[in-house]
């Protein structure tokens, strides 16, 4: 059973990761290509989003693998044969528990190591890309908008690095928009910034007050384009990027540095452990629910629906307990209430599956009492 669980888990994980990852990659592709970035940058940034995507789909894949294998065992009567030979639901749940622990170990590796590291690197690379002047501006034959109110166009870029037939419209000052045109230009690094040196050009300034146009011919003109590049400060001290040992020992310091409350840091820390437990809960709920009832040629779709609803209920509880922890960090044990609730549901479901006659007798007695 364990081998079947792992094979189906791998299949569902691959499918779900592909769907989520492609969705993220398409949106990132449009943004990066429109900024003139290379395909290598696109592949690097999308690869850095992969650990986060896997962490999202891992519990879903674990649940789907457990439900699919249990359903197949039930429809092929293998589960019935195992129960007839004396295997109790508690004994049958052992491979599922081991399967859930393996998935939880993968989730722990992601939440404690890979996801914080990849998020930190992703934000760093995004900051570097956003400040890459060359990639944003050196695209010939296209009207580019590197900043709000700015339009830039180059007809041709020569192998020597000359920019031919340059057009630059700066409308950031609505009272005096300026249009620069030149036959030739160069990008020059100077004083830690980047300047566009235009040769043999024309500057046209429109004064909206008085409706007048001023034109200036120049042989060479230097325009500082460093301001066109985003200078947004990326907060790389957020709790999401911190390691688990740092969150455990320096919670107050991280909260102060990153500018968030201690509740955010506390929730981030305990969620990393709770997510791993949720992987075990998801697998066990999917298995234990399908043990309810008897064999039916119509399948176990009712049990599958019940398992899905139970898992949704556990996730809803998880969502409602977020706010109390954010406002009061000392309530951190509430982060483990959803997995605890899931384990209680699993015990109850296995207890019901191990005593089908008892519950059948009770339901029959209630039906007779109601008819009488």
Query: Could you state the oligomeric state of the chains shown?
Result: single chain
End-to-end separation in angstroms reads 46 Å
What percentage of the residues does DSSP assign to strands (E)?
Answer: 15-25%
> Helix count, per DSSP?
12
Residue share in helix: 55-70%
SSE class: alpha+beta
User: Average pLDDT across residues?
Assistant: 82
Most strands sheet: 6 strands, antiparallel
Order of helices and strands: HHHHHEEEEEEHHHHHHH
Shape: elongated
Describe the structure.
By secondary structure, the protein is of the alpha+beta class. It is 61% helix and 17% strand. The protein has twelve helices and six strands. It has helices at residues 2-34, 39-75, 78-84, 89-130, 133-137, 244-249, 251-258, 262-290, 301-320, 322-327, 337-354, 356-371; strands at 143-147, 150-157, 163-170, 178-190, 193-207, 212-224. β1 (143-147) and β2 form a beta hairpin. The protein is elongated.
Brief overview:
With 372 residues, the protein is an alpha+beta fold. It is 61% helix and 17% strand. Helix 4 (89-130) packs antiparallel against helix 8 and helix 8 packs parallel to helix 11 (337-354).
What's the topology here?
Blueprint: H1 2-34, H2 39-75, H3 78-84, H4 89-130, H5 133-137, E1 143-147, E2 150-157, E3 163-170, E4 178-190, E5 193-207, E6 212-224, H6 244-249, H7 251-258, H8 262-290, H9 301-320, H10 322-327, H11 337-354, H12 356-371
Helix pairs in contact: 1-2, 2-4, 2-8, 4-8, 7-8, 8-9, 8-11, 9-11
Name some characteristics of this structure:
alpha+beta; 372 residues; six-stranded antiparallel beta sheet; 17% strand
């Amino acid at each position: 059973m364990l081998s079947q669980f792992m094979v189906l888990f791998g299949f569902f994980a691959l499918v779900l990761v592909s769907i989520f990852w492609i969705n993220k990659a398409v949106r990132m592709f449009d943004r990066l290509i429109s900024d003139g970035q290379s395909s290598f940058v696109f592949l690097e940034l999308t690869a850095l989003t992969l650990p986060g995507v896997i962490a999202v789909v891992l519990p879903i894949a674990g649940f789907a693998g457990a439900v699919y294998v249990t359903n197949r065992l039930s429809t092929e009567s293998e589960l019935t044969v195992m129960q007839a030979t004396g295997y109790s639901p508690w004994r049958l749940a052992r491979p599922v528990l081991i399967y859930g622990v393996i998935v939880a170990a993968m989730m722990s590796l992601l939440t404690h190591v890979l996801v914080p590291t990849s998020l930190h690197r992703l934000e760093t690379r995004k900051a570097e890309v956003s400040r890459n002047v060359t990639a944003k501006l050196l695209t010939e034959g296209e009207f580019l908008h590197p900043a709000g109110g700015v339009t830039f166009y180059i007809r041709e870029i020569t192998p020597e690095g000359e920019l031919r037939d340059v057009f630059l419209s700066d409308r950031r000052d609505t009272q005096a928009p300026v249009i620069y045109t030149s036959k030739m230009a160069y990008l020059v690094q100077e004083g830690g910034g980047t300047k566009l040196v235009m040769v043999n050009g024309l500057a046209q300034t429109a004064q909206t007050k008085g409706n007048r146009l001023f034109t200036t011919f120049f042989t060479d003109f230097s325009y500082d384009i460093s301001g066109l590049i985003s200078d947004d400060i990326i907060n790389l001290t957020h709790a999401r990027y911190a390691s688990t040992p740092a969150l455990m020992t320096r919670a107050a310091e991280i909260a102060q540095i990153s500018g968030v409350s201690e509740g955010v840091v506390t929730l981030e820390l305990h969620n990393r452990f709770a997510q791993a437990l949720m992987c075990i809960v998801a697998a066990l709920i999917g298995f234990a629910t399908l043990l309810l009832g008897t064999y039916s040629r119509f399948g176990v779709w009712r049990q599958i629906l019940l398992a899905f609803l139970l898992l949704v209920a556990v996730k809803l509880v998880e969502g409602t307990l977020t706010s109390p922890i954010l406002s009061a960090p000392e309530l951190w044990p509430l982060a483990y209430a959803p997995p605890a609730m899931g384990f209680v549901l699993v015990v109850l479901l296995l207890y019901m599956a191990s005593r089908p006659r008892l519950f059948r007798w009770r339901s029959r007695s209630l039906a007779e009492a109601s008819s009488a």
